[in-house]
Amino acid sequence: MVLAFAIVIAINSFGQKNNYKEYKNDFSAKHYRDSITKERYSPFNAGMLNFLLPSTGYHYIEEPLRGWCVLGCELIPLSVAFFGVAASFGEPGAGGHVEGTEKLFNYGILAFELIQIWSCYDVVKVTKIKNLAYQEGKITLKIKPEFLVVNQNNNSSIACGLSLNITF
Predict the structure, then answer these.
(1) Among 30, 65, 124, 152, which residue's Cβ finds the most Cβ atoms within 10 Å?
(2) Residue 108 in contact with residue 78, Cβ under 8 Å?
(3) DSSP alpha helices (H): ranges in 15-144?
(4) Are 13 and 109 in contact (CB under 8 A)?
(5) This prediction's pTM
(6) Could you tell me which of 69, 97, 72 has the C-alpha nearest to residue 84?
(7) What is the predicted pLDDT for the residue at 9?
């Protein structure tokens, strides 16, 4: 079940509407306020969501694969920090206490905060680029997997398929 969920998320991520990777070289966020007339996503909301709950800003702007990658990068230093806390509670000299665990905690928290600050900046920049791409009316393509339960002759079966949406 977990594998099926991961596959659905991966397929859905690769068929994103106005994927940032496709438009990052076509648009610049430097003069965003001067050139934008209609916003599909709010850069402020994306940044705040990303700050309050790590990587949710990316899901808000429909960049879930990027969001999962950022979340993974944030969890690594956070787990190092928690290891530092757990290792500091051991008995000194009995093999449970590891010297320098306070530094592990400090470095882990520092790395987590640096990644979180960068991700807030990044999600705002990506939001601006995506808004400019939507304003220009770029063609979008979205492939979405579907799993349906179909009843035929009083037998339930699962039907799998893909739906394709093209917007221009």
Answers:
(1) 124
(2) yes
(3) 20-23, 32-35, 43-52, 56-60, 64-88, 101-135
(4) no
(5) 0.66
(6) 97
(7) 55
